[in-house]
Amino acid sequence: MIGRVSSSPATGRLVVFEGPEGAGKSTQVDRLAAWLAARNEPVRVVREPGTSAVGTEIRQLLLDPAREIAPATEALLFMAARAELVECELRPALAAGETVLADRFFLATYAYQIGGRGLPADAVMDANRLATGGLVPDLTLLFTLPLAEGMARAERRNDFDRMERAGSSFHERVAAAYATFATPAWQAAHPECGVIATVDASGSMEAVFERVLAALDARWGETFTPARG
After folding, report:
1. DSSP label at 14?
2. Strand arrangement of the beta sheet that strand 13-18 belongs to
3. Residues near 153 by Cβ (< 8 Å), separated by ≥ 6?
4. In terms of residue numbers, what domain contains 161?
5. Non-local CB neighbours of 164 within 8 Å, separated by 6+ positions
6. Which of 74, 107, 159, 217 lies in disulfide reach of 224, CB 3.0 to 4.6 Å?
7. 13 and 135 Cβ atoms separated by less than 8 Å
8. Is there a domain that residue 1 lies in?
9. Contact, 92 vs 37, CB < 8 A?
10. Quick check: is 132 in a domain?
11. Domain count within the chain
12. How confident is the model at residue 6 (pLDDT cuts 50, 70, 90)?
């Protein structure tokens, strides 16, 4: 079992991008993937839910704005997609020495299903342990942005999915959960989440990307420092 993945190039790295709606994490995933590929670093991009065949079908169910899904059903569908992603995509990529960039992982479940939907934390965390098999991210980049600014960005896309349409009070609870995740006390109490570094998501895409590189440089200077000059 892989468990916490070593930072050794022989075993790969799992870097997770997290944050509330409109934080721009998907854009930064793509930018970093291109940056790494240009430097001949083996890289793979995954998203949650999705990427695997089963996960892609589950994603269509979960994000369809025409569907009504009970909170517990929603959480379990996310877990099923995650279990498939871990076994079919993450573990093989990490074993092959790739840097895996994940657009969301289980911190989103803590924010959306525990914080937003109000599901019991212990039950959700137990299910998550089953889904991940103990896999711990090497680093989670938690993008921070005022809720109003993030929702305004999401609104400009003009294609709200089912989660984005959940209402302002729901998104306020999600944003509050993410803010809690940024605190040292919460992180110390949740070792299953690994190392979490906050990234200010305000400003231009270029400015945010520089902050992403700085966070990665602080964690893995041997990979990120020499190539930045």
Report:
1. E
2. 43-47, 99-103, 13-18, 139-144, 196-200
3. 21, 22, 24
4. 13-220
5. 21, 154
6. 217
7. no
8. no
9. no
10. yes
11. 1
12. very low
Element (H, E) at 47: strand 43-47
Residue count (the chain): 229
Q: Domain for residue 22, yes or no?
A: yes
C-alpha angle 12/14/20, rounded to 5°?
A: 165
Task: Specify the DSSP class assigned to residue 87.
Answer: I
Can you give the C-alpha Rg of the chain in angstroms? 17
pTM (whole model) above 0.90: no
Local structure of 228: helix, strand or coil:
helix
Does some domain include residue 229? no
Domain with 156 in it: what CATH number?
A: 3.40.50.300
Give me the DSSP letters along 101-160: EEE--HHHHIIIIIIIT---HHHHHHHHHHHHTT-B-SEEEEEE--HHHHHHHHHHH---
| CA proximity to 142, closest of 183, 171, 84, 114 | 183
Name the average pLDDT for the chain. Answer: 87
Rounded to an integer, what distance in angstroms lies between the CA atom of residue 45 and that of residue 48? 10
**pLDDT above 70: percentage of residues in the chain:** 86
